[in-house]
Amino acid sequence: MRCSASARRDSARGAAPGWLRIVLGLLLAASVLARAEGIALDSATLQLTDEGYELSAEFDVRFTPATLEALNKGLPLYFVTEFEISRPRWYWFDETIVRMELPYKLSFNALTRQYRLAIGPLFQNFDSLQEAMKVISRVTRRLVARKDALEKGEEYVAALRMRLDTSQLPKPFQVDALTSREWNLNSDWRRWNVIP
Question: Residue 44's closest CA among 158, 152, 186?
Answer without folding.
Answer: 158
